[in-house]
Amino acid sequence: METARLVHNLTLQKSQRYSTRIWESHGTILKKLSYYVPENNFIRLKIGKRVEVLEYQRKIHEAMKYLLGRLFGGRSLEANQFSIGCDTVLRVPSTLKFRIENLYTPSFKIANTLDVVNQIVDNSSLPLSSLKYSFENHIYHHPHSLVRTVKMLKLEVEMVPDYISGIVSNLQMVDEKRAHIVFLGDCTSSNFLKILAHWILEFHRDIGTYHTYQLSEAVVDEVMIFVRTNYGVMIEAGLPQTTDQITLNINDTSSLVISKFQQKEKWIFGLKMEH
Question: Do you know which InterPro entries this protein is assigned to (predicted)?
Answer without folding.
Answer: DUF3557
